[in-house]
Task: structure prediction
Amino acid sequence: MEDTALKADVQASRDLARRITRELHKRIIGQDEMIERLLIGLLTGGHVLLEGVPGLAKTLTVRSLAECMDAGFERIQFTPDLLPADVIGTMIFNQRTGEFAARKGPIFANIVLADEINRAPPKVQSALLEAMQEHQVTIGGESYPLPDPFLVLATQNPIEQEGTYPLPEAQVDRFMLKLRVTYPDKTTEKEILRRVAVQPLADLDRVASASDIHAARSAIQSLYMDEKIEDYIVEIVHASRDPAAHGLPDLVPLIEYGGSPRASIYLSVCARAHAFLRGRGYVLPEDVKAIGADVLRHRIITSFEADAEEITTDDVVERIFAATAVP
Result:
């Protein structure tokens, strides 16, 4: 049973999520799932990668999210000529003192928008992703901690487009969630046309502070998860590694590599956040199902045979969930 204190914490923090969502919808029409997933990343401290063609409001949504918070924000437009120092900073010589001093780069912000991350060369991508993992950077042989909270929200265009450097699987794995942003339906697009084409962007209020985010993260960590749900998560991830042992022999030739323990960790974290956003102090199997594809699509590597048969990672994840017994 939920105790009174936990209920109060969940309700207070859920009100925070509602305030942020309300502000975002002043500018963003539709894209409810993208907004919710960005909130999950914000409220758990997990980095998020958004993939979709240009013009789907990815950048606008991330920038608007930052404007809702009383926190530092930086946007890095990734280009092929970008250098690692342009991201993390460098040492500069002070002629007055005759000494070198660190000039910190845009990575030193609470929310960093890495726009079109797959347009930067691998060295720049590695510099950013190392900072994401370590929460610190090294400039001139000295380590500098990044601010807390620290969150990277990255966008990328589909890898089929020219002039891109696809992120290696090991680096994509640093992102807790990978979202596929799709086109709006006709009704939503008509509303976009009516509002956005003729009106300036709405001003947003700052409705969240760093302390609010920390309080929400503590509330999410306190949510109850039954051992049966834990077993359910582990079963799903293990099915991606050894599908034959889980009654899915047809997936064996389609999977090159399954999910790592990081997949299990993030499924647990995101399922808690998903339950939290619905005002519950406990996790249900539906929470795991709802977030499963976004956590697993970049952690299960399909084979050449799957590519030849045009079977995507999302298809594989759907089969695994369908074949795994729900507690």
Remarks:
- The chain has a mean pLDDT of 87.
- The chain is about 45% helix and 15% strand.
